[in-house]
Write a structure and sequence with these properties.
By secondary structure, this protein is of the alpha/beta class. The chain folds into 2 domains: 20-265, Type I PLP-dependent aspartate aminotransferase-like (Major domain) (Aspartate Aminotransferase, domain 2); 267-399, Aspartate Aminotransferase, domain 1. It is built from 16 helices and 12 strands. It has helices at residues 9-12, 17-23, 49-56, 71-84, 95-104, 121-130, 146-152, 175-184, 197-200, 234-248, 254-265, 267-286, 303-309, 324-333, 364-370, 386-399, and strands spanning 88-92, 112-116, 137-141, 157-163, 188-192, 210-214, 228-232, 291-293, 316-320, 339-340, 350-352, 376-380. The strands form 2 sheets. The chain has a 7-stranded mixed β-sheet with strand order 1-7-6-5-4-2-3, sandwiched between helices. Strands 8-9-12-11-10 form a 5-stranded mixed β-sheet. α2 (17-23) packs antiparallel against α11 (254-265) and α14 (324-333) packs across α16. The chain is globular. The chain starts with 8 loop residues before the first helix and ends with a helix. Mean pLDDT is 94; it is low at 1-5.
Length: 402
Amino acid sequence: MKRHTGQDQSITRNWKPATQAVRGGTARSEWGETSEAIFLTSGYAYDCAADAADRFAGEQVGMTYSRLQNPTVEMLEQRIALLEGAEACRSMATGMAAMTAALLCQLEQGDHLVQGRAAFGSCRWLTDSLLPKFGIETTVIDARDPQQFQDAIRPNTKLFFFETPANPTMDVVDLEAVCGIARAHGIKTVVDNAFATPALQRPMDYGADIVAYSATKMMDGQGRVLAGAVTGTEDFINNTLLPFTRNTGPTLSAFNAWVVLKGLETLDLRIRRQSENALKVGRFLEGRVPRILHPGLPSHPQHNLAMRQMEATGPIFAFEVEGGRAQAHGLLDGLGLIDISNNIGDSRSLMTHPSSTTHSGVAEEKRLEMGVTEGMLRLNVGLEDPDDVIADLDQALAGVGL
């Protein structure tokens, strides 16, 4: 006899986030496994031809092809939706697949998008280079100022797209204000919440329509796999996003979904500890470098806003040195514990020079417009003892005269 294969949503939706991260969306096979199973299959068999026809027609519950459904992937999608407080979720092969799909599934020739200036380099490429090829215009604004969203609205404005905190400048967007402006004008908001995750910030609580993730980052949390996710209403996920993804195929593998499921079990513990570590490291650097951009520090111009809409400010922040690329690279080369890496959200401390890595594909004038200088470094503080991270930074800074 089959065991429990699903959950009563009326019960699971009332669980606290830490419980959702461990148990949300769990489905068990007839074997009753406690750890989620990995279903490594591309296709599914049917008892008869009529069943196959009915499933493709949507008249029978069941799976048809792993580009569309997979038991392991569906568990992850349900868990992320529960954590986010969203009706539904669709996973993707990567974070950039998630961002691309979230935009392209809604936009068409003649539409207009408003985007925050500070964004991951590939997200800027989407709006600066890809969308114009399809006749979609973008206005780039300073997302720290809600009035700039209001002023940028046109009759054909379809979406607001922004990150908060933003990569790598740590700009913080007033979610309630910006989402309120959007709703008043019938505009949808797409929020990249990868730096915070739903453990620290839930944009939908402030009126966001769609929240997208690189699950590669904090959700996996150990630098193992690539994954992405988009959350929203059931109507949006099933009737707007799904037709796009089912035919373009940015599918998340079952194995990667399983790894992220395991990562979510420790997300709350990791992100809070890493936030504490990052705050201690940030306090050390604040007296040592010319400029630090850490929302958890009172010196950050949007510190109060960050404290209001976030549980904690996460493991990632940026700082600047005055000697430009040469001094920044010298500091990186002097590190012994911290790895030079462009990834973030890892349990290991990582540092990169955005201007020559993550944002190297962005034209110099646009990098400067975003606030990405040649002296900027982005640091992901891991789970190591923060005093060891500080000691490593101390000697590396001394090596470049700081």
